[in-house]
Amino acid sequence: MTPSSPFLPIKCGRVEEINTQEENLTKPMPNLHIMDPKLLQSMVYDALVWSSLHGLVVGDRNIQRSGKVPGVGMVHAPFALLPMSFPESHWRQACELAPIFNELVDRVSLDGEFLQDSLSRTKKVDAFTSRLLDIHSMMLQNNKNEEIRLGLHRSDYMLDEQTKLLLQIELNTVSSSFPGLSCLVSELHRSLLNQFKEQLGLDSGRIPGNASLSQFAEALAKAWKEYNNPRAVVMIVVQTEERNMYDQHWLSTVLKERYDVSTIRKTLAEIDEQGVLLPDGTLLVGDHAIGVIYFRAGYTPNDYPSESEWRARYLMEQSSAIKCPSISYHLAGTKKIQQELAKPNVLERFLDNKDDIAKLRKCFAGLWSLDDSSIVKDAIERPEFYVMKPQREGGGNNIYGDDMRKALLRLQEEGTEENAAYILMQRIFPTIAPSLLMRDGICHKNHAISELGIYSAYLRNKENVIMNEHCGYLMRTKVSSSNEGGVAAGFAVLDSVYLT
Amino acid sequence: MTPSSPFLPIKCGRVEEINTQEENLTKPMPNLHIMDPKLLQSMVYDALVWSSLHGLVVGDRNIQRSGKVPGVGMVHAPFALLPMSFPESHWRQACELAPIFNELVDRVSLDGEFLQDSLSRTKKVDAFTSRLLDIHSMMLQNNKNEEIRLGLHRSDYMLDEQTKLLLQIELNTVSSSFPGLSCLVSELHRSLLNQFKEQLGLDSGRIPGNASLSQFAEALAKAWKEYNNPRAVVMIVVQTEERNMYDQHWLSTVLKERYDVSTIRKTLAEIDEQGVLLPDGTLLVGDHAIGVIYFRAGYTPNDYPSESEWRARYLMEQSSAIKCPSISYHLAGTKKIQQELAKPNVLERFLDNKDDIAKLRKCFAGLWSLDDSSIVKDAIERPEFYVMKPQREGGGNNIYGDDMRKALLRLQEEGTEENAAYILMQRIFPTIAPSLLMRDGICHKNHAISELGIYSAYLRNKENVIMNEHCGYLMRTKVSSSNEGGVAAGFAVLDSVYLT
């Protein structure tokens, strides 16, 4: 195995230092909506070609088989034509937070009582969280310890325009998407900035190196090595249809090419059907011993249509395979836990270093439970400053504005336990910027907002922390609909960062 | 520019020596139709993934925009799942022939009289060849010399099973397709042979390195350099719809990444509309001076629906741009010229080296004009041993069997000049082998025949030959329909070579 695989665009393999010496030579990002039409046309064409040749692709939702069979019904992944400006100081801040959040998730995951207590009221009103907690309880009862723990997280932030504060939106501890494609987008943007250097006057060195793919693969490979069975494989838990399969295939490809580690792909139903637990804890699926379980499904109730899927989840959790994530890591990433950790003196329960605690707290947006009647009152009066988030995973379920006001009033009236299914969060107002968003081969001029995701990897065994670092990033740029005052609506695209 | 681009699978960049020491360890190609179904399924899946991530793609004919807009409606290129066995001695023979054919084409192209005379009767019955000859005549009249001459050819061969002779099917001097994708197929096959080494027992080192892409790009870049205008571009002449655009985009990408040479893509109609010839012979198209014209269109009458396209062809031919091919090179690759060159003592007119002449002659199949009444008589009596080929370019126009017999009888009766629109060629019977052909994500078990194409590049200026070499190869494997006794019917896929 060569350390530098031929199958990766060369820059994907390393995180680069930013060259700040050329700062004076660098023009700011131009207004993308007043670009010369001929230049725009050339850039669009070249970007589409680049995507097609370099595997920056997804399954086309208009084509039936595209989520099942690789190689058919492919279309370029939606992407921003140029990277999004982002202040270097905030970028560095986000990277620095990554290992601290990794450590926090690990500590929280070890405190079974904290997880159960914090989620006890949510359990009553959210069937999905309830099932996860049941599995968690059984593991506690059986004294099941996860000695080797692997986390592949993505912490998402927005930059609040008024306060200039970097505020955390959420921390994904399960199934963080786009580690494979995000570094391709960075590479695409570097390529375009070089190709059109004269016309754009932008410095491709201001796009930070993005090693999400190679470092996620490295973390999975190192975890596999810790499992210490050369015949074992990495199992990717997948949905029955997955149009984002190429993002996952990139990881499998690098795992195989660079580390000679094989992967298999199984749905929860297939794991239930084919999975067997040996007395020593080994999980067999089909003919394969499973060393590492990497979840790219199982984070939403939709992935558990029957008891079969829950049996599979329970079976995996009982096994000696390294779970990414374990049920504890999964629960530690829920919104309710995010809100609990934001309460005074809770971080101190898990972390010792005061600087670290201060850094985390600085990025916490206002987070409240619906038990806090003064906040609920304020949210009803000034709904524009809040967002109501259901515990349930997956975007697009947030409640804003008048809908939120009505929902809060209804919950007040009914006085039920349903309160516990939601949290309230401070509304963040990021900068709205003119953007060029590519979808289905068409360039859309939109006003858009961006969310910065920082990938991080954490791996430890009984004795040592083996990996604890930020790995790369994903900018997600979303069409901003004016009637929601900056809230994401419409479609989102993959983007990268241009440091300013 | 780095010599080894990050955008190429690493092996695509060089022609490798075959390691013959491991010969004893190598198993022959197994019967692909009796492969373990589970193994087959894994290989199919991995091959489809590999294609998608590495740009081995084409536009899907079922999707309207896929021939116009890059990045939409993509599907894996059709390919054989495993390489086709081919004897190493014949492989080497084909490679050795490449520079000799290059030289021959160049010499023939300089003999305007030979081209005009040989094609004089064809001119009367084939309107397309006639128009090409008209342009050629005008160039002769104007003493237009092409001092810098670039040829990017592909010579196609079949291996006759009974005689074990490598016989040339045709020599493509214009628009040879798949230099970009063919080396990806070789890389895919190497990857599969490595991945499934234990199960298949095949040695990936027996798949020869395939540098068609990088060497075609090198030849174009060197020609561009000879033109000696740093602001000039390479113009690819394209069809209005092109589902094989990614094959061409690979060349543009390597040209830009490795040599910093820009390409533009224009249809013949666009060239007519936007093209201007400056007094010094410079061809301007839009804002661009054209250094090299690379034809990926213009080889079939369909590409000239109106006078506009012919004006474009004439305009280009008058210019100082390096044409790949010039009108002379184009004519030198016609079937009629192939047949003329096969006549006794004709090769001697162009080449001095007796060994070279013998090597060429050895690969000539029987080729006859329809003036040869004894051959026509034999073909009517034993049609299974002949194929009738129209002068017209593009596959699928050949006439076999009873159809041929009837056509020959009709031509005899009518006694017209139409004779001259065809040649007769010895029917070649290649080995029929069980094959696994991938199309639209589905693996087809077929009996198939293969045709080996050897890419070659030739470049010279007034003083020196700058490049004259074989560059790589393309195996094309086609479904063999039994009712035609070994003749290609149905679909063809891209394939590579496994040396035995």
From TrEMBL, chains A, B:
Reactions the enzyme catalyzes: gamma-L-glutamyl-L-cysteine + glycine + ATP = glutathione + ADP + phosphate + H(+)
One cellular-component annotation, GO: cytosol
Cofactor(s) for this UniProt protein: Mg(2+)
Binding residues for substrate: 154, 174-177, 242-244, 248, 296-299, 476, 487-488
GO molecular-function term, one example from the UniProt record: ATP binding
Glutathione synthase substrate-binding domain location: 232-332
Subcellular location as annotated: Plastid, Chloroplast
Comment on bound cofactor: Binds 1 Mg(2+) ion per subunit.
Pathway(s) served: Sulfur metabolism; glutathione biosynthesis; glutathione from L-cysteine and L-glutamate: step 2/2
EC number(s) reported in the record: 6.3.2.3
Keyword Magnesium: yes
Amino-acid positions noted as binding Mg(2+) in the UniProt annotation, renumbered to this chain: E170, N172, E393
Positions bound to ATP: 170, 335, 389-398, 400, 425-428, 451, 478, 484
Key words of the record: ATP-binding, Chloroplast, Glutathione biosynthesis, Ligase, Magnesium, Metal-binding, Nucleotide-binding, Plastid, Transit peptide
UniProt xrefs under NCBIfam families: glut_syn_euk
Record text on subunit structure and interactions: Homodimer.
Family as reported in the entry's similarity comment: Belongs to the eukaryotic GSH synthase family.
Protein name from the UniProt record: Glutathione synthetase
Source organism (scientific name): Actinidia chinensis var. chinensis
